[in-house]
Specification:
The chain has one domain. α3 runs antiparallel to α8 and α5 runs antiparallel to α6. The protein contains 10 helices and no strands. It is about 80% helix and about 0% strand.
């Protein structure tokens, strides 16, 4: 953390206004990136599902003039993908949006490191109410609460044992959070692979059509397989790019929260440094 307002003994790396501005800018940039990634995932789908008024008007004009009717973008995508790829990419897109919303709601300082918990826990320690402090931390399901409860539970055997218990709790909780964001990376890896599968599938279909004809097939017949090859790759990249970007963002946030939890928990428990020495 740039500034530790709860511990006046520590030197400040940045002035308080500069540190607050830096934290605000970091959070704003992170939220803007997540919002942009959600837009990248959702906007193409919404655009495809919305009726295209201009295209409909052009079709009406073409029908009146006797020209052949064209296909709108949604019809082209659906026909190019086919039923199986539509199901696959819809499942991946809905899953990715759900994961991004879940991670964005959970990876916040107010959720992982509640300021109220730190303040109340420190008040109980100042009043020598150690049992109440332990019960407060144990009842809290946040990252910091689990670490503090692990330290207080092992404090009777000495401060070094409490520190080891807190470090073990930090490792376990960090692993649980890492597992959650790993699903975002999984979607980012699966989406282009399904796109590549559709590419190969479409090209195989096109070459099978050529091999089955003694004469050259019509371009419109070859376009069926080629369009599937291109559209599956396109949609796979639509999903993979925001997934990979958000995974990197969440991983950076997790590393920062791990450091902040370690710093805050050690600060709160530092008053028990002589417990093991007195017991010995």
């Amino acid at each position: 953390m740039l500034v530790n307002s709860c511990d006046p003994g520590r030197g400040e790396l940045l002035p308080r206004p500069a540190a607050g501005l830096a934290r605000t800018l970091t959070r704003s940039i992170g939220r803007l990136l997540v919002a942009s990634c959600l837009a990248i995932v959702c906007v193409p789908t919404v655009v495809c599902l919305l009726p295209e008024v201009a295209v409909a008007q052009d079709e009406d004009v073409a029908a009146e003039e006797g020209a052949p009717e064209g296909k709108n973008y949604l019809q082209f995508l659906l026909e190019a993908l086919g039923v199986k790829y539509v199901i696959v990419f819809l499942a991946l897109s809905f899953g990715l949006v759900a994961l991004l919303v879940m991670c964005f709601m959970q990876f916040r300082k107010s959720v992982l490191i509640p300021p109220a918990l730190s303040a109340q826990f420190e008040q109980h320690l100042e009043a020598k109410e150690f049992q109440q402090a332990y019960e407060l931390a144990k009842a809290d399901e946040s990252y910091l609460g689990k670490v503090l409860s692990a330290g207080m539970a092992n404090l009777q055997t000495g401060y070094p044992a409490a520190v080891e218990a807190m470090q073990a709790a930090e490792s376990e909780e960090a692993m649980n959070l890492e597992h959650k964001i790993s699903y975002v990376s999984l979607v980012g890896g699966l989406a282009p692979m399904f796109g590549l599968l559709g590419t190969v599938d479409g090209m195989v279909a096109a070459f099978m059509l050529i091999a089955s004809r003694d004469t050259a097939p019509k371009p419109s017949e070859l376009a069926v397989g080629i369009s599937q090859a291109l559209v599956t790759t396109l949609i796979g990249l639509w999903l993979a790019i925001p997934a990979i970007a958000c995974y990197a963002l969440f991983k950076n946030w997790l590393q920062r929260f791990n450091a902040e939890v370690d710093e805050e928990s050690m600060r709160l428990m530092s008053r028990f440094q002589n417990v093991g020495k007195k017991a010995g």
